[in-house]
Structures are given as structure tokens and as C-alpha cells.
Design goal:
There is one protein chain. With about 325 residues, the chain is of the alpha/beta class. The chain has a domain of about 230 residues: Type I PLP-dependent aspartate aminotransferase-like (Major domain) (Aspartate Aminotransferase, domain 2, 3-Layer(aba) Sandwich), CATH 3.40.640.10. About 40% of the residues lie in helices and about 10% in strands. The strands form 2 sheets. Strands 3-9-8-7-6-4-5 form a 7-stranded mixed beta sheet, sandwiched between helices. A two-stranded antiparallel ribbon has the order 1-2. α5 links the parallel β4 and β5. Bound molecules: pyridoxal-5'-phosphate.
Length: about 325
């Protein structure tokens, strides 16, 4: 392990060299999306140049496409601590949730209930609201305390019950920055047999996600928030994967990884997602604590940990700067 080297990390991002009217461009909109390292660009270009074909063929380009998918599944599984047959790639988190809410809602009956939260991005609200309205299902809401910006966990017992079919919650808020105890919310949902969904779009870029530990049925994140291309990534627990009747065209296979594919996915985005996860692993190799020669998962965890330590340094510098502003 070596100390964090800003120059070395920044040199990997071509967009950081862009000048506007001779001034260095400054990127301040991290929650909306990150810049991409050269590795991601290379992976995507390679996919488009070398393996530009649909999967399923016996010819060279199609075989290359299948390798891209295999690599993507392996990387995403390591990233989320999931099985590789529990991964679904999509356009983005919102469209994945519209797709899955439609399949899940087939199991709902009028009078059933779902629990949503007041701290979620609409991407983890609107799909469930639409499905609930179509099925005559009652929507309950988990609120947060406007003083502490924490969920009102105490209300969980009264909000879930035998008719709760779904509990959907937020891991890290794009609105408040709160990091939520999603394992606690998931446990409450599981206790009554509800399907549980965690939106990890804002947490996945900042700390390791472990679906085993959270215990949820579904978890979604968006690679463009962690150095990747615009894409969505969904974890789908094996039991639910096997139970859900897929919404798909008839000739498409019911086996993973295509079981939930809506036509051909963006293979170049899958390749880019692999590149983004490799970038995190590289951070682990360069600046992580004791990740040398370890599994991909351990290297990713070490990379996120190293980045979090550096984020704390930058945050301190920012707050010190605020302190020096007059009238702030
Ligand atoms: C917490 C959270 N959830 C969901 C989304 C939607 O993600 P996507 O654009 O991949 O649909 C966002 C986007 O900013 C978000 O911040």
C-alpha cells in the first residue's frame, strides 16, 4: 500500500484535462454522476470495435460479446457480494424498477399493502406507485425525522403487517446524505414475508455493498455514479429470480443471464461497467490496506475504503475553507 496520490488517480481521467476558455473545468455534481477513467473508455471501445454483435452466435464477434457478459457478471457479483446468476443489467435503475415492479405486482391482490419511504428518489417510488394503483394496493409511508434526517424506525412495526407485499427503501439519500440502516428495514419486511428492495444508487459509489449482509431480495445501483457508463445494475435474490414469471419476448431464454432481458442489452455499457469495477479494484491495489493478490471482492473493498479515507481528507479541507468564509 502507498499513500493516496491525487495526480496518479486524476491522470486516469481524460475529462479532467479539459479546459473551457483556458480554465480548468471543475466538476461539482458528483451525486448526479461521475467522470470515467480511461479504462472504462477502453473497455467500451473494445466492445464496439472487436465484439460488436448480438450474443448467442457461434462466430467470433458473438463469442466476444458473451465474454463481455461473463466478465460483467463476475465483476458485478464481486461488487455486490452476490451470485453471478443473481445479476441483471439494465438501462438505468429507474427502468429496471419499472420492469420488476410490473412482474412483482402480478402477485399483488386488492387490499394488499406496500411500504415506501419519504426519503427515496422517485426512481424507487414512482414504479411502485403505478403498480399499486393498477392492482388496488394500499401505499404506506415510512417518514423521516426532519431534525435528525433519520428514518422513523420505531414506526416500522405499525407500518408492516401480514398484507405487506413490498418494502422499498433508500440506502443513502441523494437529498440529505443520510446513510440508512437498511438491514433493519429489510428485516422488518422479511419478518412479514414481504419482498424487500434497497436503492443503493448513492451508497454504491462510497462504500462496499454486501447484499448477503443486508438480506434484501432486490438491490439496484447505477454504474454511471461510480465511474462507469450510463447503465443500471440489479441484484435479484435467487429465490425471487426463480419465482418471478419473466416479462420477455417468447424466443428469449428463461435462463439467466437473459431471463429478464428486454431484448439485447447494451454490451458496451456492460463492458464499461466491468471497467469501472476494475478501476475500484485498481484503487485497492495501489492505495488499499493489504489487498495485494486478494480476490476481486477484497480489492474492490480495499479501493472503496482508500477512496473513503481520501474523501474524508477532502471534506475536512472543504469545511475548513467554509469556516474561513466571512458571514458563512
Ligand atoms: C438515490 C437515487 N435513486 C435512484 C436514482 C435514479 O437512477 P437512474 O438514473 O439510474 O434511474 C438516482 C439518480 O440520481 C438516485 O440518486
Amino acid at each position: 500500500m502507498t499513500d493516496w496520490n491525487d495526480d496518479e488517480v486524476r491522470a486516469r481521467f481524460p475529462s479532467l484535462t479539459i479546459r473551457d476558455e483556458a480554465r480548468e473545468r471543475v466538476y461539482l455534481d458528483a451525486p448526479a454522476g461521475s467522470q470515467v477513467p480511461q479504462r472504462v473508455i477502453d473497455r467500451m471501445v473494445e466492445a464496439l470495435v472487436v465484439s460488436c454483435a448480438n450474443e448467442g452466435g457461434h462466430f467470433r464477434t458473438s463469442q466476444g460479446t458473451m465474454r463481455i457478459v461473463e466478465d460483467g457478471l463476475g465483476a458485478a457479483a464481486a461488487f455486490l457480494n452476490a451470485g453471478r446468476d443473481e445479476i441483471v443489467f439494465g438501462l438505468n435503475t429507474t427502468s429496471l424498477l419499472f420492469h420488476f415492479s410490473r412482474m412483482l405486482a402480478r402477485e399483488w391482490q386488492p387490499g394488499d399493502e406496500i411500504l415506501l419511504t419519504r426519503m427515496d428518489h422517485d426512481g424507487n417510488v414512482a414504479p411502485w406507485l403505478v403498480a399499486a394503483e393498477e392492482r388496488g394496493v394500499t401505499v404506506r409511508w415510512l417518514d423521516f425525522d426532519p431534525e435528525t434526517f433519520e428514518y422513523r424506525y420505531d414506526a416500522l412495526d405499525t407500518l408492516v403487517g401480514p398484507r405487506t407485499r413490498l418494502v422499498a427503501c433508500n440506502h443513502a439519500s441523494n437529498l440529505l446524505g443520510t446513510i440508512n440502516d437498511v438491514a433493519r428495514i429489510v428485516a422488518a419486511g422479511r419478518a412479514v414475508g414481504a419482498v424487500t428492495m434497497v436503492d443503493a444508487v448513492q451508497s454504491a459509489p462510497h462504500f462496499p455493498i454486501d447484499v448477503e449482509r443486508i438480506g434484501c431480495d432486490l438491490l439496484a445501483c447505477s454504474p454511471y455514479k461510480f465511474f462507469g457508463p450510463h447503465a443500471g445494475l440489479l441484484y435479484l435474490k435467487g429465490e425471487l429470480r426463480d419465482r418471478l414469471k419473466p416479462l420477455k419476448v417468447r424466443p428469449s431464454s428463461s435462463d439467466m443471464p437473459t431471463r429478464f432481458s428486454l431484448g439485447m442489452p447494451s454490451f458496451e455499457a456492460i463492458a464499461g461497467t466491468t471497467g469501472a469495477i476494475e478501476h475500484l479494484a485498481w484503487l485497492g491495489d495501489r492505495f488499499g490496506r493489504g489487498a495485494g493478490g486478494a480476490t476481486l471482492r477484497a480489492r474492490i473493498v480495499a479501493g472503496l475504503d482508500a477512496a473513503a479515507r481520501q474523501e474524508a481528507v477532502l471534506m475536512r479541507r472543504l469545511f475548513d475553507g467554509f469556516d474561513q468564509l466571512r458571514g458563512f
